[in-house]
Amino acid sequence: MKKQTHHSKWMLLILLMLPVVFMAQETITGRVVIQESGEGAAFMNVIEDGTKNGTATDIDGYFTLSVEKLPVKLKIFALGFSEELVDVKTTGPITVQVEESSESLEEVVVTGLASSIKRSNLANAVSTVTAEELVGNTGQTTVDGALYGKVTGVNITSSSGAPGGGFALRLRGVSSINGNNQPLVIVDGVYVNNVEIPSGLRFASGGNAGNEENSSNRLADLDPNDIENIEVLKGSSAAAIYGQRGNAGVVIITTKRGKGGRTKISFSQDTGINVIQNKLGLRPWTAQSVENTFNAAERAKYEATIAANGELYDYEEEIYGNTGFITDTRLSATGGDEKTKFYVGGSYRDEEGIIKNTGFDRLSLRANIDHRISDVFDFTSTTNYVRSNSSRSFTGNENEGGLSYGYTLAFTRPWVNLYPDANGAYPNNPNYSGNPLFVRDQAKNEDSNNRIIQGFKLNTKLYTGDKNRVRFVVNGGVDYLANETYVYVPETHQARIDGQAGFIAQGKNNFTQFNSQAIGVWDHTGLKGDLNLTTQLGVTYLKQEGNLVNGRGYDLAAGQTNVDQSVNQEIDQFKSSEEDFGYFSQIEANYKDRFIATVGYRLDKSSRNGDPNKLYGFPKASLAVNFNNFDFWTLEAVNQFKFRTAYGETGNPAAFGATFTSLATANIGGSLGVSVAGLKGDPDVEPETASEFEIGLDIGLFNRISLEATYYYKNVRDLILSRSLPASSGFTRETTNLADLENKGVELALRGDILNGENFTWNTGVQFYLNRSEVTRLDVPAFAQPGAGFGTGLGTFYIEEGKPVTQLVGSVNGELTQVGNVEPDFQMAFNNSLTLFKQWDISFLLQWKEGGENLNLSRFLTDLGQTTPDLETPEGQARLDSPANAVRFVEPAGYVRLREASIYYRIPRKNISSIFGDVISDVKLGVSGRNLFTITDYSSYDPEVSVNGGAGLSSGIEVAPFPSSKQYYFHLNVNF
C-alpha cells in the first residue's frame, strides 16, 4: 500500500511539472514595419534561424513566436523586401524594420491572374525585363523596340524605320497564318489595343492593302520609361490561363508605383539625334557608263550637270540625310504614407526623322495610386493619358503613285534637277511619275491619337488566420483610343495632274476595350509550413468595339484640303463588336520549396467562334523540382538545380465576321439592296488551338552564375484559312479550319556576376534561341498566302504541307521552288554591364542573327531603273543578265549589330551635398547610342524589314522601306 502511494506521488509530481516544462519556452512578440513609411509589413515570414520553427506577421505586421530559449536569431523575409537577420535577447515587444527591395521584386513572376511565385520555384521559362534593362542604357522610342535582344525566344522585326516605330513580335514562331500573331499585351491588368490603323494612303499610291501603309502599331503610345518590369509568357504552357487570347503569347507590363516615405522627385532629360543607319550610295556613273546604259542624249545631260555643279545630285542624301533632333523630358514624383502611396509623372518626347518633315511626338501623363482603405480593403488605380502624333511621309509599296521615295529614287537619274525654281515651282520628274522633293515638302501623311488607359483593382481580405488567408480580387480596366488619320496629295503633284487632280483622305477611328475579372484566392499553409496551397477561381469578361470611318476625295478644288471640296468622294466604314467570357481555376502546391506543382483549367466562349455560346477548354499543368532544397543535397557550389516541365493550351478565335456570309450593297435600276459578296462564312468555325509541351533545367553556381535551358514543342491545330469554292456554289471563297502547324525550339540563357569587387563589378549574359516550324496538315492544295508577297514570279510566302510556314517560294524554270526561309538559323545576344569605382557605369548589347533570308524587291526596282550601286561590277552585270525572279532577289539576312552602348557617370554624393545640401540626392550624366554599327551581307538599308506591317506572315519582304536609323544621346538624370 505504501509502495503504491510512493509511485502515486511521483506521478502527481510529474503531472504538476508538465505545464512548467512547456511554460519554460520563451514567447517573443513584436512587429515588422516598412522602413520608409513605418507601415506594418503584412504576411512577412518570421523564422527561428536554423530551424523550421516560424510564423507569419498579421495584416498589421504583428507576430508572436515561441522559442525554447533566448537569445536567438530571427530571419525575417518576404518577396519584395530585403531579408533581415535579427539578434533577439528579450521576449519583447521588438520592432524590426525591413526595406522594400526592387531586386527581390525582380524574382517574383506572375503565375495566375491573381497570384505570383518566386522565380526559383517557377516551372515555365518566363522572361523578365526590368526597368534598368529596358531603358537604363539608352533612349527608347517604343516598348517593343526596346525589347530587341533582351528576351530569349522572341523574334522582333521592324516594319518601318519611321519615328514611332512599327514592330512585329513573334514569340516562339508563327502561331497563325491568317490570324493574329502579335502577343496579347496587358498593362497593369488592362488588356490594351495594339492595332495598326490604315490611313487610306493606298488609294493615292496604288498600294495593295492596308497593311502596306507604313502604319505604326499602337504600343507606341506607351512610354517605356513608365515601366517597372515586363514579363513575357512566350508559350502556351505559361499563357494557358489567358485562354483564347493567349495563342501568340502574353506580354505583361507593370508600371512604376509609389513607395512609402518622403516624396521623391526625379527629373530626366535625354537629348539626341537620328541619322540614317546605312546609306546605299550612288552608282559610280561615268560618261561612258551613262551612254552604255541609256543613250547619247542622257550622256549629254550627265556632262552638263557635272559641268554646272561639279557633281551629281545625291537624292538619297537629300531625302534620307536629315539629322533628326530628339528630346525626351520626364518628371515624376513618388511617396506616401501607411495609407496611401502614389506615383505621378509626365513625359514629352519629340523625335524628328531622317526624312525632313517626318517625326513623332508623345505627351504622356500618369497617376498610379495605391490606397489601403482598411485592414480588409485596399484599392489601386492606374491612369494613363496619352496624346501622340506622327508624320510618316510616303514609303513602301505602290503602283505608279509617284509617292513612295524608294520607287522614285530607284528610277530617278542623278543628273536631273528636281529642285524648285525661284518661284517655288517643282519640275516634273522625267524618269518617274513623281518628284520626291515635292512629295517631301508638299504632301502629308499624318496621324494623331488621344488615348486613356484606366485600370483598377480592389482587394478584399475576407479572412486572415494562422494557416488560411482568403481574399477576393476584382480588377480590370478600359482602353479608349481615338485616332485620326490625314493623307493629302496636292493637285499639282505630277502623277495627279492628268488624272484625278489632288487626293485627300481623312479617317476618324475609335476603339473601346473593356476587361474585368473577379477572382477568389485561398492561401493555405499546411502543417509546419511544409505544404502551401494557393487556390484561385474566377471569371473574366472582355468587350471590344471598333468604328473606323475613312472619307476620301479625288479631284480637289485648287488649294483645298477638305474632303467635301472634291468632285469624287468615297466613304468606308467598318464597325466591329466582340465579346469574350471565361471561367478559370488554378491550384498551386508548394512542398518545402522542393516540389512546386500547378494545375489549371480555363473555359472560354467568344462571339467570334462559330457557336458563340460554346465553351472551349484550355488546360495547364506544370511541375518544378528544386533538388538543391532536398536534405541530401550537399553541393554548396550549386545553389540551384531545378528540373521543370509544363504543358498548356491556348486558343485564337476566327477574325471578326468570319462566321457570317458577307453581303455587299447593290444598285439595280436605282433601287438600293444587298447581294452576296462571294465570301462564305462558316457557322461551325472553331478557334485555332495551340498545345505546348515544355521541359527545362535551371542551374545556379556559387550564387553568381545561372543557366536556364528550355526545349519546347508547340502544335497549333485547326488553323483558319480561306479556300476557293466552285462557281456553282454561288460563292468564291470560304473561311474555315483547314490546317495544322508545329513549332519547336531551344532557348538558352546564361547570366553571371563575374566580378563583384569594391571598385569593379562586371555582370554579363548570353542568350541563344532558335525555332523550327512546319505545316503538318493542309486540307487544300498548297497556295501562295494572299497579301504576303508578290506572287510566285517575284517570290512569296507559300503554304505547303511538310514545309516551313516561313518559306519563300518562286517560279524557277516553270517549277515552284523554295528559294529561301525568313526564319533565322538561330539568334544570340551578348550583354555586359560594368561599374568602375562606384561612379562609372559602362554597358553594351550585341545581337547576332545567323541565317534567314529576305526577299529584297527594293533591288528589283533599282535594277529596273539601272541605279543599283553595284551595277558597275561584274557581279552586278551578271545579275542583270539573269531572269528577274525570286532567286535573283533572295539575300542572306543575318547580321551582327551593336544594339546598345552607354557610359554613365554618377557625381559623388559629397560633391552634390557641398553645393546643393540635401535638396538633390543623385545626379547622373551619360552618353549612349542605338544601332551603332551592323555587320551584314544584306545589300539594302536594314536586314530587319517587313513591307506588310506587323500582322500575319510579315517579316522578310522588302519594298522601298523607310530606312532605319541610328541614334546618339546625351542623358541627365537628377533625383531630389
UniProtKB/TrEMBL annotation:
One of its GO terms (biological process) is siderophore transmembrane transport. GO terms for cellular component: cell outer membrane. It is a multi-pass membrane protein. It is found in: Cell outer membrane. Gene3D superfamilies: TonB-dependent receptor, beta-barrel domain, TonB-dependent receptor, plug domain. The keyword Glycoprotein does not apply. Belongs to the TonB-dependent receptor family. PANTHER family: HEMOGLOBIN AND HEMOGLOBIN-HAPTOGLOBIN-BINDING PROTEIN 1-RELATED (PTHR30069:SF29), TONB-DEPENDENT OUTER MEMBRANE RECEPTOR (PTHR30069). This is TonB-linked SusC/RagA family outer membrane protein.
